[in-house]
Amino acid sequence: MDRIQMWWHGRWTVPVVSGLLIIASFAVTEILDEGFWGDVLMIAATVVAGTPVVIKAVSALMIKVIGIDLLVSVAAIGAVLVQNYWEAAAVTFLFAIGHSLESATLNKTRSALAELVAVAPDVAIVVRGDQQIEIPAEEVAQGETVLVKNGARVPVDGVVTGGTGALDEASITGESIPVEKMTGDTVFAGTISTGGFMQVKATGVGADTTLVRIIHRVEEAQEAKAKTQQFMDRFSKWYTPGIMVLSVVFGLLTQDIVLALTLLVIGCPGALVISIPVAIVAGIGRGARDGILIKGGEYLETSAKIDAVALDKTGTLTEGRPYLTDVVAFLSHIDEDEVLRMAARAEAGSEHPLARPIIEAAAERGLPVLGLPQHTEPVPGKGIVASLDGHRVAVGNMALMEMEGVADHGEAANAAQAAEELAAAGRTPMIVGCDGRIIGVLGVADRIRTDAPAMIAQLHEAGVKKVIMLTGDTQLVAEAVAKQVGVDEVRASLLPEDKLNAVADLQRQGHTVAMVGDGVNDAPALATADIGVAMGAAGTGVAIETADIALMKDDLLKLPQAVRLARRTVNNMRQNIVIALTTVGLLLLGVLFGGVTMAIGMLVHEISVLVVIANAMRLLRRHGNDRAAKTTETPRPSEQPVAAQRA
């Protein structure tokens, strides 16, 4: 009984019943020679298939919307009134079939969202007291310990507190290769254990998980309209009434009611209306599968126009884990260890990323770095000044030394030369001054990410004309990095507001700019850019919600992949518009010059709708370049140091 009820309310019920009535009508007419009952059955088929269409048309009219359903309703009712029962039944039957096929195939274009919802965990095993208890996943409390066994879905976002395992994170990052997890590593809800046993402390539960944020983001993105779609919506509001007026005019001029009704059917803009949204849904769905979250149709369309990409250096082109490479001392009574110790003491009060490698290097050498400075004064874009046991210590660039009046002594020339040599070698020089004298120079370096050169090359292949590196480092340091990765332009020694100005300058030159950064120092530039891109956003809820494009995996090659996807989607939209307009144009010519009937017109119209949908569904397949990128062996990390960014 349940199965019968499901079928009765299913999407195929109306076209199947209508089709059977049409077959019965032909059988009664041809075999039994009962023309009257044949007409009755044909009218019944029209009523079955046409009633849902008329209801939708009336509902739309009540909110002052003239849509496709109204055109079909008028044509079908008109055909019945002029006793053209076969045409009325054929039009409504074909429209019902088209609607059902459209619904089925549109569900496939939304398959990425369905897959995300499907991986949402239902249950969790939590440790309460000495017992393992199975509860609904949404009932796990913050801070509780969850057990993840082999083959199970992780029910929460959390941190591994015990055990080891491997997780398939494809639903979050798009990466199909399982990732090894051990104590201290982060795990995400919806990922699947492929081996091992882990204890996980819940840090994100229920709606506060990365998976739920992604689902919400994809839902909103697939509903958001691109500018082209907004134009098409406005166009269809005028187009549909225009077709009705055209049909009335031709009917009055030719006194041919059937011709007028046929024009109504032929003029249905179904393929045109659906051409944009179906491509956007498919494109955003493909991106979600690959760990690329795009905010909506407007941002997808804008991304296809990107011809300039601005990149932060540290953490984007480089690994973002700087280390100390050199210590140079200038004064005979202060050796290298003392230079490093004093610099580490000064940096102990700094929150800057370059403070840590200096402090860690001092600890590795066994140098005492105890206590915080009595006073710390960060100088944006230059370095830091600290008071240490009655000494004034400055660590930063030559501009800071000049500001401190330290650059006037004899060792300044040696410091400048040493800094230049370190910069030329791809290191960030940090000059150390104490009580009015320069006592030494430190060299700090980062490593270029192995996929950075390939990312730049692929961006160029994808049609990006200019890739610019924006950095707070000196020009010499920045050029050393740029030479290794292949960027087109370098803008160095920039403060956060300078990066904003650099992006604005590119826009004034006519470029559509994407900015890739960490979202902290680069926040103004990210907001100003046409498209702001956040990388490695899986663990950052704010980035998922706010970035125009969020790359869930910290993988540089996802950036050119996102650009390629946007261009493919927009090309697909254009193809669909051409298909729709060409079909309507040819059918109108066919009606006016004879040969195209109402039934043939509706059949061709529905075929064009399906062609448009099928064309959009090609976006759901992974592109050849993206497949190649997935299978390319990752090169070994380069040992070539590059400069780390001071500001």
List keywords for this structure.
single chain; 647 residues; alpha+beta; Calcium-transporting ATPase, cytoplasmic domain N; 7-stranded mixed beta sheet; 21 strands; 53% helix; elongated
Give a brief outline of the structure.
This is Heavy metal translocating P-type ATPase. The protein has 25 helices and 21 strands.
Total DSSP E strands:
21
CATH topology of the domain at 323-447: Calcium-transporting ATPase, cytoplasmic domain N
Radius of gyration, CA atoms, in whole angstroms: 33 Å
Number of helices: 25
**What is the CATH-assigned architecture of the domain at 323-447?**
3-Layer(aba) Sandwich
Give the biggest beta sheet.
7 strands, antiparallel
Using the coordinates above, name the CATH class of the domain at 323-447.
Alpha Beta
Low-pLDDT ranges: 631-640
Helix content: 40-55%
The separation of the N and C termini measures 70 Å
- The CATH superfamily name of the domain at 323-447 is Calcium-transporting ATPase, cytoplasmic domain N
Query: Taking all residues together, what is the mean pLDDT?
Result: 81
GO molecular function: ATP binding; ATP hydrolysis activity; ATPase-coupled monoatomic cation transmembrane transporter activity; metal ion binding
Pfam families: E1-E2_ATPase, Hydrolase
Family: Belongs to the cation transport ATPase (P-type) (TC 3.A.3) family. Type IB subfamily.
Region (Disordered): 625-647
